[in-house]
Amino acid sequence: MRQAQELWESRRHQYWSEARGYLKLILNSGFVISVYFLFIFLTVYYQQFVEQMPADFPLVLLLTVLFTWRLTAGSIRTFVKPADIVFLLPYETKMTVYFNQALRYSSIWQASYIVLLFMAVGPMFTERIGTGAAFWLALLFLILIKMWNLLCVWQEQRLVAKGERYSNMALRLLINAVATYLLFAQATVWLIVAIIVLMTILYKGYWQPLEKKHSLKWDRLIEVENQMVMFFYRIANAFTDVPQLRNKVRERHYLQWAVQSLGGKKGTVYHYLYARTFIRANDYLGTYLRLAVVGGLFIYVLPLGWMKLAMALLFTHITMMQLSTLSFHHSASIWIDLYPIKPEEKKQALTYITARLLFLLAIVYGVLAVVTSDLLYGVLVLIASALLGLYGSQTLVHRKKGKYRRVR
């Protein structure tokens, strides 16, 4: 028992010792300033929206969707490693303390996500649904549902087939949707209590017996842990070189035309390399598209033209920071250094690729501003975003590699 406890503490300390190094780089970067500016900006607008919220605003539906997603999502953090399937598998019966610590640790983190989300929607909740005891009871109810979901997730990891895990997740999704809808629709207390009783019965009668029917799947635990670690590494990789990040390459033949559109011709080595890297490697393309969509949504819904301009510049800057990681994507490969090409051409290629991507983003933001505002602000959004993209592609995207040292 003591050895299992010590192993847990050692694994947790080892992870956070490494994570703190990356967090320092993230906190010392300009990204935090951008997020802080966005937070202050949205706080002011959010307060105005709550005060002027239309009577027909679908608040119950919005809260139901948000919390159904957050309650259903989430994994158990175990800090297991690939070698454990060999060395710890024989001691599985003595690892109860270790996995109980994992459940407690994950419960605290997952509960904190629920609290943060509920505090974020708190002004709307108190404006339309209730205050005082109703507010705190709703939060307590959501935390209890989240704990129930985590217990179910732990048992679901014993299932081998993905289809079985997905069907269990779908069942939890349905239960969470019904429970949160009744909560935000101000159903009677007895009905909410009945939902909690039903969830308890389902866990005792369906999920908990999985522990007796199926053994613990160590390969599944390792897979989940690896996914969570890689998620953090992908975030940190936007600010420094992460040696542990495993590069994933996707074929994406249907986007081959985009390589040439970005200037990736086979005669120009680095243009072609960066274009294919952006389209196929890691999640550069996905991050670019997500930022474009989120920034476009802000520009679409914000009422004032200067707000649209501020959002366009902010998301152009954030996108620029993400694209800057292309500069050291191939830094660990010795084969790139064999190219008989001057280093200046590498820099020119990165400038060319990022400039095209940022100009495309400026056009999208400009069109949205014209459609939802007037021509003047649309032109301002287009010109300002394009100028920021032009300046950043020649300067800011090249500072990343020299600015931060590799964390070991």
Automatic annotation (TrEMBL):
Its keywords, alphabetically, are: Membrane, Transmembrane, Transmembrane helix
Q: Does the keyword Transmembrane helix apply?
A: yes
- Which residues are listed as membrane-spanning? 21-45, 57-80, 101-121, 133-154, 349-369, 375-397
Signal peptide (from-to) = none
Record carries keyword ATP-binding = no
Pfam families per UniProt: EcsB
Name the source's superkingdom: Bacteria
Q: What is this protein called?
A: ABC transporter permease
